[in-house]
Structure formats: structure tokens, C-alpha cells
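Ticket opened by: R.M.
Priority: normal
Category: complex prediction / small molecule

The reporter submitted a protein together with glycine and asked that the result be attached to this ticket for the collaborator who will pick it up next week. Submitted input follows.
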Amino acid sequence: MKNSEYRKRRKKLMDMLGDDSIAILPAAPEKIRNRDVTFRYRPDSDFFYLTAFAEPEAVLALIPGRSQGEFILFCRERDPEQEVWHGSRAGLEGACNDYGANDAYPITDMDDILPGLLENRERIYYTMGNDIAFDQRVVGWVNRVRGKIRTGVHAPEEFISLNHILHDMRLYKSRHEVSKLRDAATISAKAHVRAMKACRPGMMEYQVEAELLHEFMRRGAFSAAYPSIVGSGVNSCVLHYIDNTREMKDGDILLIDAGAEYEGYASDVTRTFPVSGRFSDHQRAVYEIVLAAQLAAIDAVKPGNHWNQPHDSAVEVLTEGLVALGILKGSAQTLIEKEDYKRYFMHKTGHWLGMDVHDVGDYKLGDEWRMLEPGMALTVEPGLYFPPQKGLAKKWWNIGVRIEDDVLVTKSGHEVLSRDAPKSIPEIEALMAANR
Ligand code: GLY
Ligand code: MN
Ligand code: MN
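Result attached by the on-call engineer:
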């Protein structure tokens, strides 16, 4: 763990919050999967971003300018009996020695201690609405301080969401974060290669998912960043298909949208290829348009361009392609103005990427699309989808193509973090042919 990285983040945040404030951020609760079984614990991204602390039942308080200590952690105490079952805890000592907290208190004592920390602070940075029970506790603490007003203490009067400031920080990735994103994307690329090598007609979609997860896990990515989409044939046209239960047939196209989460950072990669290893003429025609759109969109990722420019570039290439295929009729410009392309490309070309797959950060500042700046990371993922439908020639049915890469904005333009996953038709066909 790089303590200095996290210390820097806390300092930067506290500088922005100001000396008369306090920020309160609870860890994510453990989640029940069924009865007494919990999901593998995944810390809240905001909480982990500021603490590197990965245990549940913890609360962070940041108190800028407080002479007795600015970084307070409430957490579980050591408990030998529990630790026999669940492994070791940091405890209060670990919170200070290993995570750099100035002070640590038992989480069970929080109701007694926190009101004191609020005294004489003007503003509380706390994001309401995630956990109603916790919201009520915070309000209760403030009321306790209000109750002491006659003793001369001030109670905070302003509640401000922590999201805006913290999420703007998270939008700009540090060198440490970029290296994690690069690792996550590289693992995903290797998993997509493995899937291409393993795929055969007659296999079930979930058997391909197993190949992806195997590659994630053996490289230390304990989870996918989101449920993997392995959609063959008609399922390639279902945007968030995650059943993965169909038998794949010769002649099907297969769309895989799967990304590893590695050390807290997400990747989000889509590749589309033929189950047989050879594109049919119609699949090839659609694929080449989506690939050209994706390359045009990636080209538009550079400082000085705004958020929506990659999308505009993709829409232009896709719409011209749909006209060239005879699927849409008319001038591309009019079709774009009337948004007719949305029948076959109904989502946006990307989103911010970071600790969360659909990462935090505003896309607009006021009414204007945000400018791209070095350190921002995003996906570029145009697609075309042709589920069976009236008015569309049958030869296009059941072809769904999306190509998605993870892209970092750099000073000189961009870096495609997931570049190790092949995406040109000759590369894909050669890789699959060599593994039959
Ligand atoms: N995998 C979800 C997305 O591409 O946004
Ligand atoms: Mn995706
Ligand atoms: Mn995505």
C-alpha cells in the first residue's frame, strides 16, 4: 500500500473543504446474498480512494486544520474469536500505524465521540441519500451539538454533499491509478484472447464466460467489474444480456463485454467475433463499419476536444455506413439530425472509467460538454444492433456488434489501455485459425 498516495489525496481534498468543515464518509455495509451468506466484500470506491481501508463497519472523518489530528477512523476493534473465522482486522492500532489515521476509535463508540468532532465546525460534507439510517444518525449528532449551544459551542449549519468535490478529484487519475487501470485493461485483453481461442460452435455461452473469469482470477482480478455479457446470435443484440445460457451455433456472431476489476480499478472491454472463427460477408460488412466508427471516435479523444466529440464522430461513421449498406435511406446529415440511426445504435459512445465501471465525474459543466484533459479515462464503445424486426432485411438479423476499448487522455492525445485485445478482422481470424 502506498500511504503517501492516499495522504496526498486526503490533503488535497481537505484543502478544498476548508478549515471550518468536517467530512464524514461511511464504508460500504456488507451485503447479504442469501440468508446468512454475504457477497465477497467490496469497499465503497469513495471510502477506499481516501483511506485504502478495506474493512466493513468503518467511518472516516476528515477534519481540516484540527490540531489534535485531521484524519480520524472509526473501525472494528481486534477480536481474536472473530478473527479465527474471518481473518485478521487492522484494529485501532493498525488503523493508525498501517493506514496513517491520526486517531482511531471503536466503531461502537461513534455516537459518543462524533458529536464532539462536529463542535464549532461550520459545514458538514456528507452525502445524503445513500443510507437513510446513517443519514438519521448524522442529523442526530448535529442535534446533540445544537443542544449544547448554551455552553458556547457552535453547531454546524451547512450540509454539503461530498460528491461534487470528491468526484471531480477522482475524474483525474494519478500515475498510480493509471497504472492500475492499465493492469486491469491488460488482464481483460488477455481474457478476451483466451475466449477467442476457446470458442467453438456447440459450446454454451457460460463456458466462454468461465474462460474469461478463469483468466481474470489467475491474474489476481478477483471479480469482473460488472456481470460479463456473453451474447451469441440474437443475444448479441441485447445490450445488457447476462444470462449467458445459450448454445452457440456455427454462423453466429458472439459479442463479449467483459472487464476485470483489479486492485479496485475497473476495465470495460467488448470484442465481437464469429463463433466459427470466420466472419460471414454480412457480419464482416457490419463489423467494418463499427470498427471504423470506433477508430474515428478514439481519434477524437484528445485534450482540447470536448466529451461528446468522440460520440459525434462515431455517429457520423455509423450513419454513413448504414446508408452504404442500404439499411437507412437518405442523406447521412438528415438521418443524424432526425436521430434515425438510434434504431440501430441506441446508446452513447462511452462513459468515464475508474474505480467504478461507470465512473464518477460530470459530463457537462453548466450547459457545456466538458473538455477532455490529460488523466481522464473513458470507454469508447460504438455498436450496431440488428435484432429481428419489421422493415429490416433478414440477412442482417441477429448481428450485434460492439467494440469497446478503455482510453486514457494524455497530453499528446490518448493511450488505448486495452490495446492487447485484437480487433481487426485479419487479427481475429488469424488468432482463431491458429487455435482450432
Ligand atoms: N459494460 C457496461 C458498459 O459497457 O457500459
Ligand atoms: Mn462494456
Ligand atoms: Mn462501457
